[in-house]
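INFO  loader      accepted 1 record
INFO  loader      residues=241
INFO  predictor   begin
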Amino acid sequence: MLKRSLLLAASLAVIVILSVMVYGHYDSNPSPFPNKNHLIARINHLFPEAAASKIQDTIFIDEKHTFVPFISKTGRYSTSFWEWKNRKWKLESVNTGGEPQLLKLHLDDPETFYFIWNIGPRSKLSYGKFYLLRDRRFLVTLGKQNYFPKIQMEKKVSLDAKHYGVLQIPKEWVTVLNSMMEQESVKQANYLFSNEPLNFGWLPFNSKNNVVFPDDLNGNKFSNYGEHLEMVRFLDEEEIE
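INFO  predictor   done
INFO  writer      dumping tokens
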């Protein structure tokens, strides 16, 4: 009996120790964010094409996610994204083009969706408009008529006052996205809800209010962040009503 009790106590002790080790490994509080020299060295080591030369800023989206815009040796305005993971700050993505990307910290929570960008003065852009869109549809299925109205939501952002930025998607967009997610979860088998998802896009404008598509926004990209990070599509003006 005593032997069995000692064995049980030892087993529990091992479980507790292992639990503490696992918790400490994955959920420890972040250490101080690396200095600029370390960031530059890390970017250039993992993605030499970036040729990082100057860190412009470090913007903490939350305590475990950081946006770091930088300028390359050739003057390209670029972006990088860092995450506290497995007890260290990891470089998750680099984009030397600097055009807008959509960062989804948690795929099932639109409130954690952010636009990030770093667009330099050579692009000669004054402002941009971000959009949340869905095309209208009219379908007849099994004799039943179904109409889905167009969704178009807009957010204007200045691009000349500051070359880089982080923008949490507007609350109105979050409400719409959450509503769509609820519909999809209830009607997963219904293709009417799954074939036409909401999507994100943008239009860039110069100081004369003309839409322009600068060539220097096409750069090299590196990402370990999978579906959590996506490019924001350049829209055609005809898509906007």
